[in-house]
Amino acid sequence: MQYKTPYTPPTVTVDAVMFQLIDNALNVALIQRSTEPFKGEWALPGGYAPQGETTLQALERIVLHKAGVSILNDLSYIEQLYTFDSVARDPRGHAVAVTYMGCGQNIHPDQAKAVVTFFPVNNLPPMAYDHAEIVKYAHNRLIAKLTYTNAVYAFLPQYFTLAELQTAYEAVFGYELDKRNFRKKFLSLGLTEETDQMRREGAHRPARLHRFKSPDLEVLSRSFD
Amino acid sequence: MQYKTPYTPPTVTVDAVMFQLIDNALNVALIQRSTEPFKGEWALPGGYAPQGETTLQALERIVLHKAGVSILNDLSYIEQLYTFDSVARDPRGHAVAVTYMGCGQNIHPDQAKAVVTFFPVNNLPPMAYDHAEIVKYAHNRLIAKLTYTNAVYAFLPQYFTLAELQTAYEAVFGYELDKRNFRKKFLSLGLTEETDQMRREGAHRPARLHRFKSPDLEVLSRSFD
DNA sequence: GCAAAAGTGTTTGGGATACACCCATGC
DNA sequence: GCATGGGTGTATCCCAAACACTTTTGC
After folding, report:
1. Residue pLDDT, tens place only, A94-128
2. CA-nearest residue of chain B to A223?
3. What is the pTM of this model?
4. Is the CB of A49 less than 8 angstroms away from the CB of B2?
5. Which of A23, A225, B46, B162 is the most exposed place for a label (fewest CB within 10 A)?
6. How many whole angstroms separate alpha carbon A215 and alpha carbon A211?
7. Could you give the domains of chain B?
């Protein structure tokens, strides 16, 4: 194009915001940095995206290496979040961060590789870089996804109770829903079907298990809440 | 971090999808490429994003230089769209494109700088790179924005008729709306107010002019259509 | 008076909301 | 029998959708 002067691109980095429900609360995976800058602080898992790899490929490789998690296999849903590019966000120099957000229900970081911990989104530690902002942005995006798509499935095992389903929504939205209205509305969407299995646990009536009819992300006919 | 081998970032580029209504149709600005690759083909205005500038700053500079349009001043609304990063999208080598989408109502490209033309989204020419895909993605995002925010304001002058407003929605959505229901619903949102001015043109009843109460982007209390 | 766009109301159906009690089980 | 969470129905209100005629102007 028109730039005769040597063109120097910014560094390109990738970061993953991985959500999972733990004890009925929405949690996000953070890794404790072992090197400067921000040594010892908590950060999103991520790293440098080199030429020749898509950002998602780079992220898969990096997160697998640093945290022992495969974002492609261990997450049930993943999407590109946003590209953060302010010049001062990395003290080492201008770094453009292409970020991704995903959800899973059985993510087990490999603690041998690094200190990786899930923190409740309502009780996050101080974070390196602009990662607190990124997590907040991801949470807002997630709320939106759950309202107009069937993305909740990403938080649930194959068979689940309606109470678990409702709890997933409540954990993401941050407020409680009416049980009768929730069930009526959700069932009317026709995304799930009853199974003939029940879960019995504790001194109370067993709960019927449901499952999603389709494993694919769909836009809802009527948006949720 | 962990990469001892020399790290080579991909090229970072920026591209702008600029929408404007022309003759009641949604149009997008394309520039005819004057150099290889894709010489002579139509493409989104864009270029290289160097270290030390945000992608939006780079885009402002590049689009001003290549098309004579200031995305910051000539667009009423702009947002980051998506980052396209497939390895093969640019034949010269791996280029990660951070794209933006915006809307205006009085965009006048400087034809002295390049051949810049607005094309109706329903009648686009063959396009360079993956730019057809990007325009389609932007159009979908725009439809979503108009359904849950007051972003239509970006297509309209300060004073406008309800017929113009409805036409803007129809041009973006691609289908027609019922006039009575449209007015009832839109007015009930309380975003606009009547003025005491009328527009008279042609052999028919003059139309009352309205204006938006606030120039800011807002999420609607009830989403639109 | 006629062509052309502006403007205006009512009916109906469905979904959202609010709300309280019985059911099945383990101990 | 009691504590615990699972499961269910109804009344009201508001909004979405469907639908056709009158008004104001220029010529």
Report:
1. 999 999 999 999 999 999 888 999 999 999 999 99
2. B223
3. 0.95
4. no
5. A23
6. 10
7. 11-147 (3.90.79.10), 157-212 (1.10.10.10)
